[in-house]
Specification:
Blueprint (H helix, E strand, L loop, with lengths): L3 E4 L11 E3 L5 E5 L4 E4 L15 E3 L1 H9 L12
Antiparallel strand pairs: 1-4, 2-5, 3-4
Length: 79
């Protein structure tokens, strides 16, 4: 049986087709307006409730996330 994860992130927040999980073992299966479904069966680290999942966004995903009122933004200087 494959393991799934449900994230509090959806199409109203970001272009989910433009998200690539930082962990190559995680697969984006799809989503709704406010949730994202991942297959985490092959994730390099086990995920627990409340864990964060990192993504590499393409331009459209980054633009949507940057302009969404529902996405918390944190500026990290010096990278």
């Amino acid at each position: 049986m494959r393991q799934r994860a449900l994230l509090n992130l959806g199409r109203q927040d970001v272009d989910i087709g433009g998200l690539t999980p930082e962990d190559a073992g995680i697969i984006v299966l799809g989503g709704s307006s406010d949730h994202l479904v991942l297959d985490v069966s092959d994730a390099h680290h086990a995920l627990n409730l409340g864990d964060e999942v990192a993504f590499w966004p393409n331009y459209s995903a980054l633009l949507a996330a940057s302009t969404s009122d529902y996405v918390q933004k944190t500026v990290i200087k010096g990278l």
